[in-house]
Structure formats: structure tokens, C-alpha cells
Recover the amino acids of this structure.
């Protein structure tokens, strides 16, 4: 009974945040909606949602800000700031840096000054489209090369795309070999939030074949 009640409280809190994030409600205000003390609510929310109420509010605000920034308005950053209820553009800047690892302007530019090299390689599973940046592999797809390229161009509309082979792409083909001991150390251009990168970092520390709880 307690578990069901806790679940309903967190579901209600999440719904409240999703509907009122533009007001940037405080922890106490959200906790009051489910009739809990801020400290108790903080612990319960983190237990059920896997992140704190503050982080969840930040992720929700960021997702909406990114939608606003996708419009090419000259004042998009200012619009995104006030649309998400943030008090200043510096707070929006800090939010992007903290979670996305880039500024709002860099996100809005859609890959400007980013070079993406791509090529199609034969693999045991058919033709594979592999793309890379200076940071590492950014795409590997078994879709048609035309479709795979279109998807990348949609994601990075202002990037410089070059149809050219490079060593990082060829190293990526090693994932198809059977002898795992001979796999090279591949570098990936990870497109994720700070939180997701931390999760991946923790997972990579687990020895191959081992389990961790």
C-alpha cells in the first residue's frame, strides 16, 4: 500500500513539474503538492525517479529551451530564457553547459564549425555507413547511406560533411572481428547529457563479463 502511495505521489509530482516548469517551482512548492516535507520528498523522488527534483526540473526546462532554440529567430536565446521561466540568459547558459556540455549558441548553430567525414564500408552484415568527427565516431548505421546521411544532416544542419575515409572509421570495423582481444581502442563522439556520460563512464569501469549491482 505504501509503495503504491509513493508511486502515485511521484507521478503527481512529475506531472506538476511538466505543467509548471515555466514557473521554476521550488523544492518546497513541489513537495507541498504531494503533502510531504521537502526533505522527505527529495529522498522519495530521487529513489523513484533516479534523479533529484531539481535535476528533473532542469532537464524538463532544457528540453523545452532546445525546442525554442531550433527556431532561427535572432532573439531565440532570449526567447528560450523567458519561455522556460529562467531569470536571465546567463542561467540558461549555465544550464546548457552543466547538462549538455555546450552553450545555447553552440547548440543553436547546429554543428557549425563541425566537420563530419563519412564513408560506406562492407561488413559481414552488409554495407555500413560510418561517420566521424575530430572527437571520434559519431554514427554507424546499416540503413541506406542516403538515409543515414540525411539523418545526420538533420541533426547537424550546419556541419561540413565530407565523403572521405579516415583511420577512425576503419578502426570501427574491428568490432566485427571475432577475437575481442585484438579490438583497438575506439574513440566515440558521444552525443549525450552530462548525466548520461557519467552513467556510461561508470558502465565502462565494469570488467568485461562481470556483473555489477
Amino acid at each position: 500500500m505504501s509503495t503504491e502511495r509513493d508511486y502515485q505521489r511521484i507521478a503527481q509530482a512529475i506531472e506538476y513539474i511538466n505543467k509548471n516548469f515555466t514557473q521554476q517551482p521550488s523544492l518546497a512548492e513541489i513537495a507541498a503538492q504531494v503533502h510531504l516535507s521537502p526533505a522527505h520528498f527529495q529522498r522519495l523522488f530521487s529513489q523513484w525517479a533516479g534523479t533529484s527534483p531539481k535535476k528533473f526540473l532542469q532537464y524538463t526546462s532544457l528540453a523545452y529551451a532546445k525546442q525554442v532554440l531550433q527556431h532561427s529567430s535572432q532573439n531565440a536565446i532570449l526567447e528560450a530564457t523567458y519561455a522556460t521561466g529562467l531569470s536571465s540568459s546567463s542561467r540558461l547558459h549555465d544550464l546548457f553547459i552543466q547538462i549538455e556540455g555546450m552553450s545555447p549558441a553552440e547548440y543553436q548553430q547546429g554543428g557549425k564549425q563541425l566537420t563530419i567525414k563519412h564513408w560506406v564500408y562492407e561488413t559481414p552484415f552488409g554495407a555500413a555507413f560510418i561517420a566521424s568527427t575530430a572527437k571520434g565516431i559519431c554514427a554507424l548505421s546499416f540503413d541506406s547511406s542516403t538515409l543515414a546521411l540525411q539523418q545526420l544532416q538533420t541533426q547537424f544542419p550546419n556541419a561540413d560533411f565530407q565523403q572521405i575515409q579516415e583511420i577512425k572509421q576503419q578502426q570501427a570495423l574491428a568490432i566485427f572481428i571475432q577475437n575481442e582481444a585484438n579490438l583497438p581502442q575506439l574513440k566515440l563522439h558521444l552525443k549525450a547529457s552530462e548525466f548520461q556520460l557519467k552513467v556510461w563512464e561508470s558502465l565502462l569501469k565494469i570488467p568485461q563479463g562481470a556483473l555489477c549491482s
Notes: The chain is about 50% helix and 15% strand. The domain at 115-191 is CATH 3.30.160.70 (Double Stranded RNA Binding Domain). The first strand starts at residue 115 and ends at 123.
